[in-house]
Queue: 2 jobs
Job 1
Amino acid sequence: MPGRSTRGAAVPERELYVSVDVEADGPIPGPYSMLSFGMAACGTFDGRVFAPDDPAESTFYAELKPISDAYVPESLAVSGLDRDRLAAEGRDPAEAMNAAAAWVAGVTAAAGASPVLVAYPLGFDWMFLYWYWTRFADAGSPFGHSRHLDLKSLYAAKAGAMVTRSTKRQMPAELLSDRPHTHNALDDAIEQAELFHNLFRWTGPSSRADASSAE
């Protein structure tokens, strides 16, 4: 059975979406390390009404001690983080992942909702966070093993576009956030939350011709 779960618990009748971003020093967790991650609560949905939240108002950010000596220089350069500094000053992974899980529990309880993780693209960020929560957190992943939403797939479905042609560069400008993409995990989680707001409310291109031109 994947991970640890809370089967049998009552499921709230709405969802709270949490935008996440990860900065890592390699392609996979275990051999390489998640160096930082940011989370921003960005809105609720009850199956009828979407209520966006200001993603800058409720956030979590952590920088972590590396868990191995291995790293890919090109991956490390993306974030600009210093592994030596993090080895000395970063949070212990178990402490950070338990604190992050407690934050998720707190914001979802306040909203009376179930948490759903959102990311663009989902695979990289989910892979690291799920592995770290499963490995280090006392209760495992606060999102279970499947409560997540890939914004790239959501765009492709709404636009009627191929997934391979659903990059941010190929999205209509009105869907994108005005915030810069800084590769600070919290900055980028907030930026991504604004993309999520726009994409969730978007009804798709006005015609198939619009979708073709977006590709």
Job 2
Amino acid sequence: MMSIWKYALLVFLGGCSYGVVSTFVKLAYSEGFTVNDVTGTQYFFGAIMLWTLAIFIPKNNLSLKQLLILLISGTPMGLTGIFYNQSLKYVDASLAIILLLQFTWIGIILQLLLDKKIPNQKNLIATAVILFGSVLATGILSNSLSFSFIGLGWGLLSALSFASFIYISGRTTIPIHPIRKSALMTTGATILVFFILPPDFLINGSLTDGLLPFALFFAFFGSFLPPLLFNIGMPKVGSGLGNILSASELPTAITMSTLILKEHVTLSQWVGVTIILIGIAYPNLQQLQRPFNEKMKGG
């Protein structure tokens, strides 16, 4: 039986998996590929990989209504990919990931507006900490900073759509295996992406002209591996620890962009990243302690 630490490692690696994608999106752009190519292939091939795995999962008898709900629930995921990859055209990968991480406090606002759920003191403190860390991490206070407001807008839209995806996913209670659920939702995302960004790569020869290796990389690390690792690890470690561990996406993305893309990240920006991680961890620390200890004793 896997120990709790091994399940925790899987969740951590799932976050890291998301984190490596943005660097290679920038590399794909430098090779002349487009947002259509990058986003379309990520979800298209990701859906194929998930459905290949789903073949070995027992089928669920879903009604047409349930099937449509799951497909539609995946559309915010597709929007997140479009917005995030658009932002990467205009801003550094290290900035784009920080903008995406703003979904943490946007989700709190969504709950307030849609569910009339007033945020507790911990969430308010966490929001303030994350915003403060984001100011440092983006380098917005630096006199030498210059960045695209278009890229900033796309990045914040990706945060809004991702917060919407999490909100909707948490309310989709259809009884279905997580892998099959991921496959259906990724299919819904693919349909939306193809509607907004025509899949020219299917007919223009891009796949055989250097796009295919990028496509398989984006699909595996962006659409296939993270849901698989999260589905295995999250139920064992709990949502509190899971939220903290999955935030590994942030330092991974910034480290990769620094090492491979040679993006310059200052000490104050790294301090900001650390503060953001503290803000993400803070509201989860107490709630994870008891369940985690119980799992350790039982496991």
